[in-house]
Amino acid sequence: MYKRTYPQFAPELIVEKKKGDPLSETQSPLHQEQGEMKINLNQATTAELQLLPGLGPNLSRRIVEYREANGKFHQIEDLMQVPGIGLKTFEKIKEYITVE
Question: Which side of the chain, N or C, has fewer Cβ within a 10 Å radius?
Fold first, then answer.
């Protein structure tokens, strides 16, 4: 049996922004808060959400479907309204997510 570990963030998602880059901070699903990169629940794709600890394809898809059906998340705790995301899962990922 092996243990799956989760790095701070997948290096392939951390991209240096260059002057004149057409992708603005508000368009990116990644935001930097207090020196750490976070995934924006209101903009992330299913692939980006799967980088979070404990989130696989099914939960990631449910998050996107919930967001499309109910609108933006107003606070990170709203994520627990998604079927399959309880307190344990939320506690694992809360430091890696934002809604801004």
Answer: N
CATH number for 30-98: choose from 1.10.150.320, 1.10.3720.10, 3.40.50.410, 2.70.70.10: 1.10.150.320
pTM: 0.66
Instruction: List the structure tokens of 91.
Output: 């506690």
8 Å CB contact between 73 and 41: yes
Give the CA count within 13 Å in the CB-facing half-sphere of 53.
16
Could you read off the pLDDT of 62-92 as tens digits, one per residue?
A: 999 999 999 999 999 999 999 999 999 999 9
- Round to whole Å and give the CA distance between 70 and 76: 14
Residue 9 makes CB contacts below 8 A (sequence gap 6+) with 30, 37, 51, 96
